Amino acid sequence: MDGVPRVPEQRRPGFPAEPDGAAALRFGVLGPVRAWRGEETLATGSPQQRALLAALLLREGRTATAAELIDALWGEEPPSQALAAVRTYASRLRKVLDPGVLVSESGGYAVRGLAEGALDLARAQDLAAEAEKARSSGDLCHARDLLRRALALWDGEVLAGVPGPYAETQRVRLGEWRLQLLESRLDMDLDQGCHAESVSELTALTAAHPLRERLRELLMLALYRSGRQAEALAVYADTRRLLADELGVDPRPGLQELQQRILRADPQLAEPSGPAAETAAPSVRPAQLPATVPDFTGRASFVRELSDVLSAASGRATTGRVMAVSALAGIGGVGKTTLAVHVAHQARSAFPDGQLYVDLQGAGARPAEPETVLGSFLRALGTADSAIPDSLEERAALYRSVLDGRRVLVLLDNARDAAQVRPLLPGTDGCAALVTARVRMVDLAGAQLVDLDVMSPEEALALFTKIVGEERVASERQAALDVVGACGFLPLAIRIAASRLAARRTWTVSVLAAKLADERRRLDELQAGDQAVEATFELGYGQLEPAQARAFRLLGLADGPDISLAAAAAVLDLPVEDTEDLLESLVDTSLLESAAPGRYRFHDLVRLYARACAERDEQPPSERAAALSRLLDFYLATAAGVYAIERPGDRLVDGLEPTEHPGLTFTEGAAALDWLYTEAAPLLACVRQSAGTARLRRAVDLLWAAKDLTESGANSHQYETTASAMCEATRAADDARAEGRARTTLTNVLLVSGRIRQAAEQAELAMRLADSAQDSTAVSWVANDRGLISLHQGRYADGRDFLEQAIEGYRAADNRAGEALSLCNLSRAHLGMGNTAKAVAIAHRGLTAQLDIGRTMRLANGHFTLGIALTQADRHSEALQQFSDALGIFEAHRQRLWQGTTNFRIAEVHLAARRPAQAAQHSEQALVLGCIGGDRMRGNVLTLLGRSLSALGQPDRAKACWREALSLFQQCGAPQADEVRALLSPLTAA
Questions:
Q1: Which residues contact 530 (CB under 8 A, 6 or more apart)?
Q2: How many CA atoms, within 13 angstroms, populate the side-chain half-sphere of residue 890?
Q3: Helix, strand or coil for residue 81?
Q4: Could you report the per-residue pLDDT of 350-371, keeping only the tens digit for each?
Q5: DSSP H helices in 118-164
Q6: For the chain, counts of helices (H) and of strands (E)
Q7: Angle, nearest 10°, between helix axes 776-792 and 816-832?
Q8: Phi/psi at 448 (nearest 5 deg)?
Q9: Which residue among 143, 154, 296, 507 has the highest number of C-beta atoms inside a 10 angstrom radius?
Q10: pTM of the predicted structure, to 2 decimals
């Protein structure tokens, strides 16, 4: 659609504002006809009286004659006392509404004097108009939000329960407008990349409005962009058949064209890309700027931003002339000088009276003195030596006087701090200063602070290619990406690596990549001539105070993409307040980055340098291992606390390794989960880093305590990689207890992802190890997992035996939460054996046990399991209530995969109750969210979705779903493949 649709045939006169202190009247017509005074609901009377009120409200202040109102309420067959009835209704409404609102005029009536937005329809129109403006200006995010707010004003059927032909006409009109708004919002959703999320909603809408071709078009596009091309084409086939059968017409040209574009995989069907970045256009007295590098690459947004500031300072901009200062900060080697020189050269024509340059030597042992620099600048500006005063203050004053009325650009490179810079700044408009430094000059008044980060991967590869040559890089593109990645996308490192390769014609890019792959040798490899990355970092490190240097070294030891303030405090063994002061001071030196409030990270090469400093300088050497041990204790103590909050009554935490250093404590679950998911990457990195050390057992227990990371689906791959690594590490250490627990965590990962055969192998091995180590905690957990595995394999009696073993173990350990969980799973074993009544009874016991513990995440499993049992007992409404309760808890605890699995079960109930449209909608939601069980479960969802679509009269799309399901079942060897073949065979034969 070209824009946001407006409500058809609707006029919007202005309304006066409500008097101060009065409770405003509000009215609703986008649902039942209602009225409020403030928060008080007003009685609007009989259906005919509400019909009169609606007719007046929808005229928005215009007068409706008595004849028009009679026609609106009764049409061509009004009662004999119709006029009297209209007057009675109007009289009653006057008593309810404020004085002067319902007025008599010219033999008719009107509603006047309402505040702006008093009618929900008026608010919807305003929001739609704002959305149209936002969309026209390119702000799709704001436009989508405005349309969501407008659509949220609908509350069921428009004018619900209101009789009369006028109300019916308005229902059709406003219903059509709502669909148009929905289509517009969905169109913008797709433009913003929300393809998978839109499929579920569009599936439901096309089921409700099967002949609406625009919705079908959007569904095809959403499916195509979600990688579901076969389904997209099937939607077209279903649509073409439906239109031919119902209306005897072909799809409209736009739909036909979309089908053809999908068939040929038109690349323009992908999301639109943004406009290419523009670069500023680039000529003297004095002319001191160093030469710009010929291979300057990227940095388009920074070039544009700095150029705009310089343009404003030179008087070219329309906003007026100002003396501008831009201060660029970043780690050594990030390209601050290169960028500043490049921008300065482009801006030379804007400063015809000259450009001054000085290297202030701020990173060295002897920074340049401001008075020396001022002497040099004054001479460059034509001041005789005899006229240059001696003191700093007098030189600075003369410098500003000489620059008065001139347009001069001053580039102050490599500054130490703001105190060094202040005397060197011009004091008049028309001039500008560019400053580069490793520290952020927050105390330089009026300066525009620019934090320069490393290059993007694309920029980094482009720079490498310019130096090395297109031909060498094109043949080894992946190796080139490995090189710039090993350089951490740091321009200096890339330039050094590329220069070494360019000077060695016998080297391939792969040879260089292999040299840089060794982290312990990487900094040694990144030097060429008088340039070296390590020497650049050494300049910054040498200026640190002892406490800063210690923090720099110890924090560099921790793996992980970043570190929180609390975790850093554990590493340094310092109070949080002192730690924050140290870390912020390191941020100011650009040796550390602030990733977000309370989170910090190193550049990859800076981390390697920090570790080298720790090996060289940290005394005693044992402090390195002690720092990492404190970090592991922090994570384990905190994760155990999160586990305990999520699962009250679960005694798993009692069997974990003890810790010497404390973690964080939480009083409520939301904050605890926030911590767990935020810390997932550094926490798992800490586990992996502890392999092969004395910290091994604690690391495995940390992985176990953080098992929510795999069940939520948010960090499943990282968790699995870590679990596999710990299995190998514990086996190499010949530690049966630790290996048994590590394989228990891996079993859980494999179960969640639906790899049942591998899960069974790991669980069997975990049980042998746990038995040999007499680890009763692990034995009970593995027995529960083996029960679940048996259920997946159809071995229900074995599953029952394993689950009863788990229940016995949990009871012996007084682990009420574990016992309740295994009871719920035992219900499913009895379902599989055909004991439905017993399964329902056991599920009730499991749910009751969970309720006795409290409203925790595991309570959702109780509702979920009871819902399955009730579904099999054909008690559909009760099953839906249980699944709804489970879904709410899973959502609150951010268990995405369980949300998806619950939506699948809800879809099963709806299909069994012959509600295929609702079944299709929940199936689509399950596909978007994902499910416990991986590809095997996705196959089940697709099978169910196909059945729902087939019942909705969409056989082609159903067939596409079943084909994909069959492919998934064949890949994982699932027996459901035979069921899907049977579904496809009559269609194939046909």
A1: none
A2: 26
A3: coil
A4: 888 899 999 998 877 788 899 9
A5: 120-136, 140-151
A6: 45, 16
A7: 20
A8: -85, 115
A9: 143
A10: 0.66
